[in-house]
Each structure stands twice: as C-alpha cells, then as structure tokens.
Here is the input.
Amino acid sequence: MMKTGQFKGFSVELREPGIAWIQFTTPDRLNGFTQAIKRDLIETITQAQMDNAVRVLVFTGSGRAFSAGDDISGQGKAIDGDSLMPSIPHGHDNEIGTYEGLRHLSQTLNLAVRNCDKIAIAAVNGLAIQTGMTLALACDFRIASESAKIGSATLRFGLLPDEGGQYLCVQLMGIAKTMEFFLKKKIVSAAEALELGLLHEVVPEDSLEMEVMNMATDIANGPQVATRLLKRSVYNAADMTFEQSLDEIASKTAISDHHADAREGVSAFKEKRQPQFNEWLKPSKS
Here is the structure.
C-alpha cells in the first residue's frame, strides 16, 4: 500500500477515485528539492505503481512555486517530516561522485515518473525551474496556472540541464527551439510555455486544482489496463521504427482485447450507456 501523510518536503493524499495527490510543502524554500526528498519521491512513485488503489498521480507545489529547483541553501536537513528511505551520501563531492549522484539519485526521479505506467499530471501552480521544470516535463500532462513560469536558466551559473531537461525539451519543442530556450537562459510565462508546447493547458490560478482534479478523475475512471498499456506504447513508439511499433502494440493488444474492461466497453456501446470500467480493481467481497 502507498503510504500517505506528511514526509520530508512533500505530502501524499489519496483522493477518490484513486488519485495520488503529491504536494511539495516547503514554500519558504520555493519547494526546493534535496537528495533525500528525491529518494522519498521515488519510493512514493514506486509504491503508487504497485498499489491498485492508485490510478493517477498528481504533482503540485504550495505557495508561489511548483519547485524552483534544487535546494542549495544547505538547510535541507531542517525540513520536517518522516523519511521513507534511509540516509545515504548525496554524491557530488568529486567528478565520479557527481556522475553517480546524477545517475542514481537526481535523474532517477524523472525516470521513475516516466516509467510509472500510471498517468502523471503536473499541476504547475507557480515557478517551475530546472529540477522543477524537468519533473513537470517528465509527467504525461502539464496544466499550469496563469501565474506560472517555467525555465532552466542553468547557463546563468555555467551549469547544464543535467536531469534530462534537454531530452524532454527536444521531444516537446524540437532541436532549434530547445537550443534557443537553453542558450538564451529563458524563463517563460505560462502563456509562452503553452505556445512552445511545454504545457497542455493554462487556467486561472483559483481553478487549477479543480481543472486538474477533473482531468485526473476522468482518466482514473477510464479503463486502467488499456490506459497503462497505451502510455507505455506511446513512449516506446518514439524510439522505434514503424514496424517495431506495430509489433509492440500488437503484443499489448493481446492483453487489452481479452480483458474484462474491453468486454464492458463493447457491451456499453451496444446498450447505449456509459461503461463502468475497472471492476477488477474493486475489493473482493469474499
């Protein structure tokens, strides 16, 4: 079962019908991440993946930031809350330490979001910079408030977008716009991010939670087996030839076509009613 409650730097709430609402809770630090927070987020995502009660994940911030990047204040140890994972060295003490810290701690968070078969939505309530931007881009959907701002701007410090931001931006914007985005150290408004393709939707600040919950609820009520297989197949297709993608989705269709959700979908269509998917997720009465 996925643990809910307050943890170091974030809280987890399970909302009906199976929406894991993950909120960053250090607004005084603009929800900056530490390595400990990242490891706990990875554990939470893993628990959500394996918990049938969870159908959709939502990530959002508190205060005026989604997340303004890594917490470089050195005060991260003072963040209150239980820790899901034991403490380990954060790396970055030398060249190989930086390589290992990125590969096994920082980058792994975004990989966990992308590898989770359940749909992830970023509710971008404010600043989403570097680490925060990359986490949002790793999600399957991004809905932002009108006051949100998104960017990397790592070149201001002579640093690189080292958590996968360059790859995700190329996927969403293409090479030319990505190069300009990083070289010009852009931090763009929500409206411009929408135009660039970094966001799916921009909504008024006071309706962000409602709009995200509406989307999450619609997805959660949809056929979960087909939805999860579709997510994996779409991302796989980006790295496959057409022939490979045909074979890949055929193997997944062999599962979805014979699932109870597919039978319910066909029956509902014939009977001119709304389908009632996911009976298999309901607790057994026995």
Remarks:
- The longest strand covers residues 10-15.
- The CA atoms of residues 49 and 116 lie 6 Å apart.
- The chain has two domains: 5-221, 224-281.
- The chain has a mean pLDDT of 92.
